[in-house]
Amino acid sequence: MTRQWPPSKLAIMAGDSKTVGAGRPRRYAPAGQGVDAPRLAPGLYLVATPIGNLRDISLRALETLATADVIACEDSRVTRKLTEHYGIATPLTPYHEHNAAAARPKLLARLAEGQAVALVSDAGTPLISDPGYKLVRAATEAGHAVVAVPGASAVLTALGAAGLPTDRFFFEGFLPPKQAGRQKRIAALAAIPATLVLFESGPRLPAALADLAAGLGSRAAAICRELTKLHEEIRRDDLATLARHYAGDAETRGEIVIVVAPPADDAETADDVDDLLRRALIRVSVKDAVGEVALATGRPRREVYQRALALAKDDGDGAA
Question: 31: phi > 0 → left, psi -120 to 50 → alpha, else beta; which?
Answer without folding.
Answer: left
